Amino acid sequence: MIGRDLLGIEDLGRDDLERILETARHMQEVGLRDVKRVPTLRGRTIINLFFESSTRTRTSFEIAGKRLSADVINFSAESSSLSKSESILDTARTLDAMAPDAVIVRHKVAGVPKRIADVLDAPVINAGDGAHEHPTQALLDLFTVLQEKGRIDGLTVTIVGDILHSRVARSNVYGFRKLGADVRVVGPPTLLPAGVEALGVKAYSSLREGIEGADVVMALRIQNERLEGAYVPSVREYSAAWGLDRAKLRFAKEDAIVMHPGPINRGVEISHDLADRRPSVILDQVRNGVAVRMAVLYLLTGRAQPAYGD
Amino acid sequence: MQPATGEAASASASGDRVVLDDASIRRALVRISHEILERNEGAGDLYLVAIPNGGVPLARQIAANLREIAGLDLPVGILDTTLYRDDLSRRGERPPLRHTEMPSAVDDRVVVLVDDVASTGRTIRAAMDALMDFGRPRAVQVVALVDRGHRELPIRIDYVGKNIPTAISERVVLRGRGAGLEPPLEVRVEAAGRAES
Amino acid sequence: MGRILIRGGRILDPAASRDEVADVLIEDGKIAAIGAGLDASGTTAIDAAGCWVAPGFVDLHTHLREPGQEYKEDIASGGRSAVAGGFTTVCCMANTHPVNDDPAVTDYILDRARQDSPARVLPIAAATRGLEGRVMTEMSALQKAGAVAFSDDGRTLMDGAVMRRVLEYARMIGAPVSVHAEDRHLVGQGVVNEGAVSTRLGLPGSPAAAETVLVARDLLLAELTGGHLHVAHVSTAGSVDLIRAARERGVHVTAEVTPHHLTLTDEAALGYDTNTKMAPPLRSASDVRACRQGLVDGVLDAIATDHAPHAPHEKDVEFTAAPPGVLGFETAFPVVMDLVRTGEITPLELMRRLSTTPARILRLRSGTLAVGAEADVVVLDPDREWVYDPMKGWSKSHNSPWAGKTMRGRAVATIVAGRLVYDADRGMLVP
Questions:
Q1: Chain C closest CA to A10's CA: distance in Å?
Q2: Contact across the interface for B133 and A22, Cβ inside 8 Å
Q3: What is the pLDDT of residues B92-112, one digit of tens each?
Q4: Which overall architecture, per CATH, does domain A135-286 show?
Q5: Beta partners for C193?
Q6: What architecture does CATH give domain A9-133+287-300?
Q7: Of the listed C59, C153, C183, C306, which one is catalytic?
């Protein structure tokens, strides 16, 4: 069953994924109540340790923690001693001395949540590390697809964009593969990582071939600096070949849904009208993020118990 | 109460025994339905809320009884209490969550909580806390098919199917067919395991 | 200076292709005799039954950090760590502070070494001033001061024209030019080998081609100039192939490989342990196979450790921010013994790669047990099991991917110039 930490989807089994998604289904109901709060984690402390700013993910975890009645403390790089070159592990040890019940870590470098988990007693939840993993994003994507399609098994899921630098892509590849979907990745050859086929996906550079018959098309955010000549000649060339719009979506299944982890570069990776309306489910993804993160917090905080009390 | 038919025959070598069979459960629920009607004259603002999983088939049966007896069409809600349990911090592994579905508002209604087995009172306490998060009921009453004693909180059960004295080490469980607890139902006392709250 | 008799060991002297059980008598700092039943009177006797007796190891590639970064290592601690691993001669790279691009720095290093180091220390001077890749150093003066080779090591010479002139000039004075072949542009931000592992880790990858491309360039430049190119820490199958082919057509090239590139793959980095970060990075299993084969075939002449100490606080950071490099001396022998245990290489040939060939590359007189030779000798227990704890090691730093691992094989006695400087059971025997 699910381990002490949630560092990546790669580490999870099918059972773990199903258990988290099932728990999230019940957590979603809490969000529909007038009083959107249950006392489950009353008196517990959750630290949002964000070395890289991300208002969306941090807020989603904060709401999730608060809906479970935990005290959520935001610890961001700007307001800490990190600028004074304290090592990340020292920071982690300092936080650990405050006896948190869970620590949520986001960092621009892959592997930092793992290194922190190695020294911390509290469970660590990876909220995105470099180009490695963003497990709760994948969980909310799985949850959204499950709601839309009723299943994951047997679906064809196409992820389009900057696969090379995307933790969302990696986590989703693992998640959808483990639950039985066929996964394809599509992007310019300069943005497809080496050996990506080893993850069990088919790689394409032609968008048309890649989304042919897809049930789910997921566009990734591409950072502007990557579009200025280093990896792709220009924004125009990128969006012409890999930007999603209704015309290109015709090659997918008729009932295909469109997803995006946000924030969206409108007109670059996804067209304006496609982002806002069906078959786009982008706002459902955001909503489901809270339920999924509540599920993760609920399941992981059951492990590390203080020495006293029992 | 009549003793459950076939009681002796069902006793197993491990000491497990059936204390209520399907027919006895039906009779108990009919009696409870009448008591609910008596206590709540008219009973038009009743709201049956089942505590899963055992409470769900019982609440549905009570609703059917009330429809038959008094022509009432009462809402039946399902309210999981897991997230309100007071023992969560003491347990390592998280218990699985169960379904919650509250089709109507609870404000100003008389909510009848329906559980299969009452014991320590902690589940009822959790259910009342959960209920308050859905609104402000005019009153809360409690049905338990079986009351096995061992109360740890000042909780009174308003409608009891059967009082069954048990040892704390025994388990009292409602069994049915499949995950949905399809009839025929029965209540068993099982030897091993922890006491249910 | 006393007499030492090493009794009953298996003599492995690659220089004489000797592999037999015999005694070794050391007198006046020299090998005095080798034979059966030598007279033990008046000697310090070392019982080497079950052990190997070989010429002391020669390491073509180390970082001793002095002057300038003594918090990582200094010549005293590095020299102790070296002899504890069986190394009697170590060559230290020029990336000190100040850089060893001036005879005064070379002098300083040699002076410190004479005073502080139980191992012989031979400086490799910078090929260009300040390791900046633009202006050649005064190679003749540096050689006279004691530099044995030239290298900008990790600051790879990216300007082919400068590299050409360095090779030409070094050829004139008969010195090898050691290159850390990694194309800086192809490496980019890469910190692990590019491939399925870098993709799984989500860390920027550096392709094998980043090394191979530069090996190709430098082989062509060595061919053009007739200079002696020494390829440091070969890590790719492509490099092995290119070096093999170049040597067959007569290019003056030698090459070294590290214990880590012979035994670890990029998968060692899967836990983000910064002690698995090196430059060049740990490569794929097929690269490791090719390097092992290259070593067996002699295409890769020497095993060099690239001993690169870094302080804990420098490694205790994000993988991308950590400096590359690992300790090498004390683990080298047990780690490369893997090739003997798999039957890929004989003990005698392994000793050749650790001692005789590296000595020959630098035209040193060590690397042999010939009677009359300087007595740099190591006694090795090939089967001794021990747990490597860098905290208890002799280096000032602790950055090793083998920390906590059970090692098999150990240097049990090290003799430099006829003096027993290290004994595994008694510890360091120098003040």
A1: 9
A2: no
A3: 789 999 999 999 999 999 999
A4: 3-Layer(aba) Sandwich (3.40)
A5: C206
A6: 3-Layer(aba) Sandwich (3.40)
A7: C306
